[in-house]
């Protein structure tokens, strides 16, 4: 594990560089870097502002390394470590784009939503009086969506929350449809 050997020395540097980290929710930080040459992947941009066309322009040489850190009381804990060829990470992000793409009838085109919007779609509720969404209490972590996107896993709990939100407030929109699709709760 080439990536694991470099974690200790790099955490401070990575956590202060916007090109190498993203704060996820209140208690989690994702750090990423490249080993063996190549430009670091712009994970924050790729997963919060999806652009399938941009994937073809990325440098996929070397190893891509990422570390998901969680904050505890007076300590940090490692929640997940990725160490894989950068080309595999880019393919997985492309697969995430494919699995979250939905046709938006209002816009008349297929749309891709960033992870932040997907998380809010699964966890928010519609208020018919104000005609706005409001944040509902949840135990779902946005970091689980980042992990799902980078590992190719299915974020089933987020999909179940999106389905419950649709049932509760009767509002089906493209971010909620994307959550149902990526979680495997919607048919093709």
Briefly, what is this?
Pfam families: Cas_Csd1. The protein is of the alpha+beta class and 188 residues long. It is built from eight helices and eight strands, in the order H-H-E-E-H-E-E-H-E-E-H-E-E-H-H-H.
Write down the overall geometry.
globular
What oligomeric assembly is this protein in? single chain
Work out the count of structural domains.
Answer: 2
Question: Based on helices, strands and strand pairing, what is the structural class?
Answer: alpha+beta
Order of helices and strands: HHEEHEEHEEHEEHHH
Radius of gyration of CA atoms, rounded to a whole number: 17 Å
**Major sheet attributes:** 4 strands, antiparallel
Any low-confidence stretches, pLDDT <50, length ≥5? none
Strand order of the largest sheet: 1-2-3-4
How many helix segments?
Answer: 8
Mean model confidence by pLDDT: 86
- First-residue to last-residue Cα separation: 38 Å
Amount of helix: 40-55%
Tell me the strand percentage band: 25-35%
Please give the number of β-strands: 8
Features:
single chain; 188 residues; alpha+beta; two-stranded antiparallel sheet; 8 helices
Characterization of the model:
This protein has two domains: 2-85, no CATH class; 100-182, no CATH class. The chain has a four-stranded antiparallel beta sheet with strand order 1-2-3-4, sandwiched between helices. It has a two-stranded antiparallel ribbon with strand order 5-6. Helix 5 (115-123) crosses helix 7. The protein has helices spanning 2-5, 7-15, 43-48, 86-100, 115-123, 142-151, 156-169, 174-182; strands at 21-24, 28-35, 63-72, 75-85, 102-104, 109-111, 124-127, 132-135. The protein is of the alpha+beta class and 188 residues long. The mean pLDDT is 86. The protein contains eight helices and eight strands, in the order ααββαββαββαββααα. The chain is 40% helix and 25% strand.
């Amino acid at each position: 594990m080439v990536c694991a050997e470099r974690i200790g020395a790099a955490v401070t540097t990575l956590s202060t560089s916007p090109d190498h980290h993203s704060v996820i929710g209140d208690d989690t930080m994702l750090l990423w870097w490249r080993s063996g040459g190549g430009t670091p992947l712009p994970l924050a941009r790729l997963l919060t502002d999806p652009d399938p066309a941009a994937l073809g322009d990325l440098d996929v040489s070397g190893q891509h390394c990422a570390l998901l850190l969680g904050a505890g009381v007076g300590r940090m804990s490692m929640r997940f470590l990725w160490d894989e060829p950068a080309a595999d990470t880019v393919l997985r992000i492309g697969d995430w784009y494919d699995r979250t793409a939905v046709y938006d009838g209002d816009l008349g085109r297929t749309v891709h939503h960033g992870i932040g919007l997907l998380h809010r779609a699964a966890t928010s509720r519609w208020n018919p009086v104000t005609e706005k969404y409001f944040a509902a209490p949840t135990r779902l972590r946005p970091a689980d969506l980042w992990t799902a996107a980078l590992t190719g896993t299915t974020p089933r709990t987020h999909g179940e929350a999106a389905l419950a939100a649709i049932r509760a407030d009767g509002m089906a929109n493209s971010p909620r449809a994307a959550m149902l699709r990526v979680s495997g709760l919607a048919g093709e």
